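Input.
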Amino acid sequence: MYEHDMRGEGGSILIAPGWNTHLVTNVEQQTSKAGNEMFVITLDHPDSGSVDVVHAITTKGKRWLLKQFLGACGIEEDDKGVYKWVEDDVVGCSVEAYNKPEPNEFTRRDGTVVKEMRNRINGFRKAGAKATV
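Output.
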């Protein structure tokens, strides 16, 4: 018998701009091509089935997205400003992510150039939070 866990394999589907509720399905620590430590966050948009990936850099001065993400998952800093967490603390959390679709262009193996819009997640907040702007 074959058994495959296919969660997170759905692919990205263009979703509405603005705040959308997502389920955090995976978080993995990696190093970017530029050498920056980061967390790769996989989000599932339950209404559309879209699966999107966000890269949250952990380098000082570039951690704003990671800080927003942790706050959206209910992880708070201690009295010294330190966030203590593990992947299991955030996987399964429901968060709101701000989507600002952007143009994307790529060339297929057959040489065909494809121009489309793709999701661009650039902010997080707690699910059900009120808009601040």
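The helical segments are 64-72, 87-90.
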